[in-house]
Amino acid sequence: MKELVEVIAKALVDNPEEVVVTESMKGEDTLIELKVSPADMGKVIGKQGRIAKAIRSVVKAAASKEDKKVIVEIQ
């Protein structure tokens, strides 16, 4: 899941070298944190959060194939 978020984020931003994705466990759930440069934050979130919601939807669909629950946080 970490690689999926990283590929999507790097495709969206102007500074792909500043994209940092970390993966950790939060109880039984997997927590994925996405950090981008402040200049690229708007591109990752999108108008009214549409791109962020789409990223979460894609990750949730991929995780459901493996019967996992994944939480994506954008910081």
From TrEMBL:
GO terms for biological process: cell wall organization; peptidoglycan biosynthetic process; regulation of cell shape. PANTHER family: RNA-BINDING PROTEIN KHPA, UPF0109 PROTEIN SCO5592. A probable RNA chaperone. Forms a complex with KhpB which binds to cellular RNA and controls its expression. Plays a role in peptidoglycan (PG) homeostasis and cell length regulation. It is found in: Cytoplasm. This is RNA-binding protein KhpA. SUPFAM superfamilies: Prokaryotic type KH domain (KH-domain type II) (SSF54814). InterPro entries: KH_dom-like_a/b, KH_sf_prok-type, KhpA. Belongs to the KhpA RNA-binding protein family. One of its GO terms (molecular function) is RNA binding. The lineage of its organism: Bacteria, Bacillati, Bacillota, Clostridia, Lachnospirales. NCBIfam families: PRK00468.1. Gene3D superfamilies: 3.30.300.20. One of its GO terms (cellular component) is cytoplasm. Forms a complex with KhpB. Keywords: Cell shape, Cell wall biogenesis/degradation, Chaperone, Cytoplasm, RNA-binding.
